[in-house]
Amino acid sequence: MASDLSTLSERVLGDMTARYLIDLSGRVGLWLYPTAMSDLAQRRLTVADESWVRSHSKARPAIVVEPLVHVKISGDDEPPQLGTGRTLLWSSSIDRFRLLDQRVEANTVVTTLYDDTGLRIKHRLSAGFQGLTVQSETVFENDSSSPVRLELLTSFSLSGITPYATDDAPCRLRAHRFRSVWSAEGRMVTESIEQLHLERSWAGNMNFSERFGQVGSMPVRGWFPTALVEDTEAKVVWGARLAIPTSWQIELGRRFDDLVLAGGLADREFGHWTKTVEPGQSFTTPQAWLTCVAGSVDEACDRLVSVDVPAVEAQPAMEQDLPIVYNDYCTSWGEPREDQLLAIADRIAPLGVRYLVVDAGWYMPMNSSAHWATTLGDWRAHPSRFPNGLAGMAAAIRKRGLVPGIWMEPEHVAKDSDAFAETDHMLTRDGKVLTLGLRRAWNLHDPYVKAYIEDRVIGTLAEAGFGYVKVDYSETLGIGVDHPDGLGEGLRRQGEGTHAMFDRIREALPNLVIELVSAGGHRMEASFLQRAAMSSYSDAHETIEIPIIAATVHRLMLPRQSQIWAVLRQDDSFQRMNYSLAATFLGRMCLSGDILGLGEGRLSVVKHSIKLYQKAVPAIKYGKSRIYGEIGPSWRHPRGWQGVVRTTEDDGIVVIHTFEQTPEEFSVLLPGPDWRIVEVLTPLAVSIGGDRLKVVGASVFDSQVVFVRRDAV
């Protein structure tokens, strides 16, 4: 350690150790490492050992204390060394702050920094669920006599990556991120730090950054708010997951030997965000969860999504056995009607389905030229579709032993609704009502809007007796909406309003099952997932890539929350039906399609699948997933095969799908020996030898679900 760097403290949080560093100026930084791997490398102090630059580098440091919190205050100098426009990390605002104190409050490490004007920054770090993560947040307090305008305030900033290398760790660090677009959520992208062009410069102190994230009100649009860094030699992985419903950013930054992983709200440059903190006021960032594990990327992802478990366990009691859903959308295509829904209820009730969800279009007249997407917002059922009203229809569904559900998009109104004209209560940009194609968005802080949602949304759900609501959100607000602090802060405040809306629904209807959806999976982010029982994993409903998407999101959400559709058609082959149904074992089973037209043979396939799915519930809830296979670069045109192994200590399932050019024979690695096959879903031949599950004779677009058990030794 350099002579002007020292260890301020070391705190054990779960199975990790947080090492706080401090330099002579009082700047504090944070390293995180597995407690079981505390034998850290002896770091070089300067780059004088690099012969090619020796004549210039004897005084150049190799490591410094990288800030625990990055902040940028309006009026302070911009980041130097080619940083401006690329990053706001390392702004001159950081130099104003130094350590005041550090203490532990209720198992939370609180590190307080201060400046000479009365400003304080409090960074809070505490152990997460089961000690597998740490929770990080930052509080900015203004005890000065003047307002302060923030342009950046990070929720977390990890440095010291990697503490297991004596130098700048050439060719051993890799970054893992997850891309997301409509109907193709969760593609993992792995790049070396060299590929990201984040090698330190020969001189050091140049502000390099790979800044990424999303701008708007769909937090999983473009990227998931999760990132990991892997030391491939030490076999240690650092990970971060943000809980932000609107614009966010994560940065991989570098100046010297160490890599920095930082993130939080999207800043002024990236997300148009500023925030004025008046004297006597404070501002708290959204939460981030961090982890560090001696293991694999999948293990780090398991730890990051584990933080959602307490909230999911607190969902309504009827959710505990992961009931099966039937949604009418791919049956009626936005044209639901009471007689058809009751016929569906009669068909599915004996199968073991519990939820019957009425999707979009229930509010528009029959035989109308309008479309469900142009008429949403008034939330009044049309009597031509529901002659007995929603309450009568819901009661009839309950009489058949099912729980009635309904689709809504409470935050938006569409152009053919009466509510579309309520412009005094809509969000604006540059003083004009913001129109998003077909939609406008309510200002969720407006008392009129709160009353409207209380009446038309919560009131409708309560009065009709629905036990399930599918809450959609199908357009983004983009860069933001009007607010005295600017568009980005207006957007952040709208996100707070969305959280408050979900919380009010839960408060009013504590036993209501809430499904999250946002044009598929655009809200599969921690702060939303912790407010819902489940989420639509994607809008991929009848495509061959369904199992690929369903598998990859295991790294980003709990499978017990991932609703996967099997759309069944009366002309489907048995192989096609099995392919669709097998994919639902990767999460929550949701059925749709031609259930009324299925013959007895196909209906028996569905019934058998449901019976086996119910046996798979413990593995889906409590297992760990590992994904194997060779699918090629294309999800839409996959080649090869995929195997997902999800096991607890002694039980589990293996979900197999094959694609074009599948090999005649392949095998899937099991977690150790002594497993045996208990039951299977389809005729595809499988066997176990040692720690391998072998598949033989698979055809194109084949599938299998294998139940496995390990006998006690």
TrEMBL record:
Protein name per Swiss-Prot or TrEMBL: alpha-galactosidase
Gene3D superfamilies documented for this protein: Aldolase class I, alpha-galactosidase from lactobacil brevis
GO biological process terms held by the UniProt record: carbohydrate catabolic process
Source organism per UniProt: Podospora didyma
GO molecular function, one term: alpha-galactosidase activity
EC numbers, comma separated: 3.2.1.22
InterPro entries on file: Aldolase_TIM, Alpga-gal_N_sf, GH, Glyco_hydro_36
UniProt KW keywords: Hydrolase
